[in-house]
């Protein structure tokens, strides 16, 4: 189990410190609050049947600072940061530049377009105080703690705060637009269920898709397995070297995992990232998402952790181009079977 500490940040934002040991350090000075900005809002896309979020304040977010000025590193006497403590295990705080907010302000109407307030909450999850770390380098217990934190935030935001859908995720690598190098992810809590998540949830109401996928998975696509969980390349992968992790038992989200399932997924997560990093001998840029049940779908949804890499060869990135963006049909250069074979050839424990 974990402990957590709540701390009020300048401007009223909330900081939560999670750890195996109680956190009792005295706070140091923190970054001042941002000046008021226009609230984010939504516009309805009538052709795609989904919301588009507009958040102009995000243009001003911190962009690739030197390590000496990293706002996610522990604070010291000479540096102001987001986490005003000399050390921590995992920190979660409200994003300084949110795309979704809890504000109740109105939205100016736009002729011919449906608009709405972008209600929700955006959080930053800092995995470690170590600026040079990452998911592949974290010890097993820290990875397990991270999965527990994801579960705690899903429970707090969906079940207690009443948001419709909660998405923990990590964007990794400058190649996909990361603006801070410190190991961290984010959590978005939506007042609505985004279209892609809704489609996946409805598909699992109609049939136990993920359960069948696990039960019928060809051995050629299996990367690692434990008694309580497994990692694999999905047979319908949309990205080269795409990797999924799932508990064997149908579990709606990380909040419902047992201790054994949490540890199994933590071990598999570290190995999966190290395989991807070892594939071309350097850190793999990727987007990782934790797919948990939207509100109302808890009885049929099977959680997954999905990693979509953005490097298809040692010096080639995967870009979304005309067919992907224009038609929604992905073109994949490496078959799932080829990808799994190459990933299995990487020793995820080499150099540890």
Produce the secondary structure layout.
Blueprint: E1 3-8, E2 14-19, E3 41-45, E4 50-54, E5 90-94, E6 115-117, E7 120-126, H1 140-160, E8 165-172, E9 184-190, H2 195-206, H3 209-215, E10 222-225, E11 229-232, E12 243-247, H4 259-279, E13 286-291, E14 304-309, E15 311-313, E16 316-317, H5 322-327, H6 336-344
Antiparallel strand pairs: 1-2, 2-5, 3-4, 3-6, 5-7, 7-9, 8-9, 8-13, 10-11, 11-12, 12-14, 13-14, 15-16
Helix pairs in contact: 1-4
Describe the structure.
This protein is of the alpha+beta class and about 350 residues long. It has a single domain (about 5-345), classed as 2-Layer Sandwich (HIT family, subunit A), CATH 3.30.428.10. It contains 6 helices and 16 strands. The strands form 3 sheets. It has an 11-stranded antiparallel β-sheet. Strands 4-3-6 form a 3-stranded antiparallel β-sheet, with no helix packed on it. Strands 15-16 form a two-stranded antiparallel sheet. A hairpin with a 4-residue loop joins strand 3 (about 40-45) and strand 4 (about 50-55). Helix 1 crosses helix 4 (about 260-280). The mean pLDDT is about 95.
């Amino acid at each position: 189990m974990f402990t957590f500490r709540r701390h009020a940040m300048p401007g009223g934002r909330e900081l939560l410190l999670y750890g195996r040991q109680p956190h009792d350090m005295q706070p140091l000075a923190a970054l001042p609050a941002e000046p008021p900005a226009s609230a984010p809002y939504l516009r309805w896309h009538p052709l795609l049947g989904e919301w588009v979020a507009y958040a102009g304040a995000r243009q001003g977010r911190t962009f690739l600072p030197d390590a000496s000025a990293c706002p996610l590193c522990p604070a010291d006497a000479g540096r102001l940061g987001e986490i005003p403590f000399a050390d921590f295990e995992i920190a979660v705080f409200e994003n300084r530049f949110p795309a979704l907010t809890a504000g109740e302000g109105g939205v100016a109407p736009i002729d011919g377009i449906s608009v709405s307030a972008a209600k929700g909450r955006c959080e930053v999850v800092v995995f470690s105080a170590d600026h040079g770390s990452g998911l592949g380098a974290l010890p097993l217990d820290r990875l397990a703690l991270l999965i527990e934190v994801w579960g705690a935030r899903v429970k707090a935001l969906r079940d207690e705060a009443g948001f419709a859908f909660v998405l923990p995720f990590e964007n990794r690598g400058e190649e996909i637009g990361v603006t801070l190098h410190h190991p961290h992810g984010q959590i978005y809590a939506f007042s609505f269920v985004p279209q892609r998540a809704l489609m996946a949830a409805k598909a699992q109401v109609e049939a136990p898709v993920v359960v069948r996928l696990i039960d019928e998975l060809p051995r050629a696509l299996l990367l690692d397995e434990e008694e309580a969980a497994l990692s694999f390349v999905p047979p319908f992968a949309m990205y080269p070297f795409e990797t999924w992790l799932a508990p064997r038992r149908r579990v709606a989200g990380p909040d419902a995992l047992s201790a054994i399932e949490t540890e199994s997924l933590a071990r598999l997560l570290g190995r999966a990232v190290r395989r991807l990093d070892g594939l071309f001998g350097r850190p793999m840029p990727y987007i990782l998402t934790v797919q948990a049940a939207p509100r109302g779908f808890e009885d049929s949804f099977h959680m997954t952790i999905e990693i979509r890499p953005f490097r298809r060869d040692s010096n080639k990135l995967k870009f979304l181009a005309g067919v992907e963006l224009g038609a929604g049909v992905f073109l994949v250069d490496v078959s799932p079977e080829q990808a799994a074979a190459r990933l299995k050839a990487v020793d995820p424990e080499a150099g540890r």
